[in-house]
Amino acid sequence: MVDAYDQVLSREASVSISEVSQHQPTLEQLKISLAELVPALREKAAWSEENRRIHEDSIKALADLGVFKLRMPVRYGGYESDTRTLVDVAVELGRADGALAWTVSTYWIASWIVGLFPDEAQDEVFSNPGTRICGAVSPSGAAVPVDGGVVLNGSWHFVSGAWHANWQELATLLMRPGAAPEPVIVAVPMSSLEIVDDWHTSGMGASGSVTTVAKEVFVPDTHIIPMDSAIRPNAVSKLNANAPIWRSPTILAGSAATVGILVGMAKAARETFFERMPGRPIRYTDYEHQAEAPVTHIQVGTAVMKTEQAEYHAYHAAALVDAKAASGEPWTIEERARVRADEGWATRLAKEAVDLFAAASGGSSIYKHEPIQRIVRDMHAISVHPMFSPDSNTETFGRVLCGLAPNTQFI
Q1: 282 belongs to a structural domain
Q2: Given pLDDT bands bounded at 50, 70 and 90, which one contains residue 23?
Q3: Which of the four, 83, 333, 361, 370, has the lowest number of CB atoms within 10 Å?
Q4: Domain boundaries, position 207
Q5: pLDDT for position 1
Q6: Which of 100, 112, 132 has the alpha carbon at shortest distance from 209?
Q7: What CATH number does residue 327 fall under?
Q8: Position 406 in a domain
Q9: What does the pLDDT read at residue 22?
Q10: What are the distances in angstroms from CA 391 to CA 40, 190, 338, 404?
Q11: Which of 37-51, 224-238, 320-334 has the lowest mean pLDDT?
């Protein structure tokens, strides 16, 4: 018997990679097909967590849909999609599997960053229409100048999706003689890097966020940009210079690419809870049916409201990023801080919603075959990521509102 996953996969995978660029679905078609694929992706989530990487079938299905192309330049068969679309897609992916959604979003961010590189580098990186790029933006290691480029050595941690990537963009320090170390970002093929299989965690296990290592790797000058060119950005790409999506500061483009994940995970918790609820009693009480208990009404009502509030913040952030990108107007520091605050509040509210659904799910929900326990652990793992931190993001916004400079360059 063919399961739901095989049915969707066989339908969507009938177009080869070489044909995708000629018969690429519209964004609306992509979102409809992805929504149909969600149940099948969920079936692979437990395997992905157990094996600490995304299932190959899930990667193939998403590649065939074109999900990895959302932030690739149009000239290479990409969509150059706006941030609202990223939220839409991330919500659906989050409903399927939070770690899967996170991995896909990191590919979007890294593809967007490579879009800031010289066009010559993009021609190589995007020459394969199915390319996937992982990333590491915290500077590590060292790049020493040589004729025509640099020699790179070092290691980079938390590299989500490295197992299925073709390239990695990574931050490092350019060590010129007699000069202070300069943060730069380089693009390196995964074939030049080693992977250290060290991802053993309590949450987000399927993201495969391993360590990558460079040993005497040559990087040509065309594959290097200053960190400032990515953070602000001051793109050195001529062909992407006028494209709206590359007008946004990197941290805000990244925030908008990821914030929908949390909303999707809260929706997944809701769906999981209501699937289990019929016929369940509340142990050590007289309630034979959980649905009849006032405490359940309060829990689920509060959780759904928090999910909807999280969704508001996700789309508010996306709307602001898209509006500024479309107009080309300079960002104010308050607007930058507001996007960070939106992400923080979406995280806080979505996490609270998931925790409420988990608390209402009873002791039997802690079995590993129950999806809610994985959703909880993945949500807790994401919420401690510095980009998502509700307290740090709210503090930054509050500082700016009080007339102080933000205490971070990631804004």
Answers
A1: yes
A2: low
A3: 333
A4: 133-229
A5: 31
A6: 100
A7: 1.20.140.10
A8: no
A9: 54
A10: 35, 35, 13, 17
A11: 224-238
The predicted-structure confidence for 263-278, as pLDDT tens digits, reads as follows 999 999 999 999 999 9
CA distance 153 to 155: 7
Q: What is the pLDDT of residue 81?
A: 95
Structure token digits, residue 124: 């190589």
Regarding whether 277 and 327 lie in a shared domain, the answer is yes
The answer to whether position 408 is within a domain reads no
Strand partners, 196: 211
Give the model's pLDDT for residue 100. 98
Task: Say which residue the tokens 């326990």 belong to.
Answer: 373
* 367-391 pLDDT tens trace: 999 999 999 999 999 999 988 999 9
| CA dihedral sign, ordered 114, 119, 125, 130 | positive
Same structural domain, 165 and 115: no
Burial of 329 (0-12, 13-18, 19+ CB in 10 A): exposed
Q: Are residues 207 and 152 in the same domain?
A: yes
Q: Are residues 223 and 252 in the same domain?
A: no
User: Is the distance from CB of 105 to CB of 81 less than 8 angstroms?
Assistant: no
**Residues 69 and 151 occupy one common structural domain:** no
Cα–Cα distance list, 323 to 71, 92, 317 (Å): 17, 23, 10
Domain of 142: which CATH number?
A: 2.40.110.10
Return the structure tokens found at 366.
């802690």
pLDDT on residue 54: 98
Residue where the block lists tokens 């590299």: 159
The CB density around residue 239, as the number of other CB atoms within 10 Å, is 15
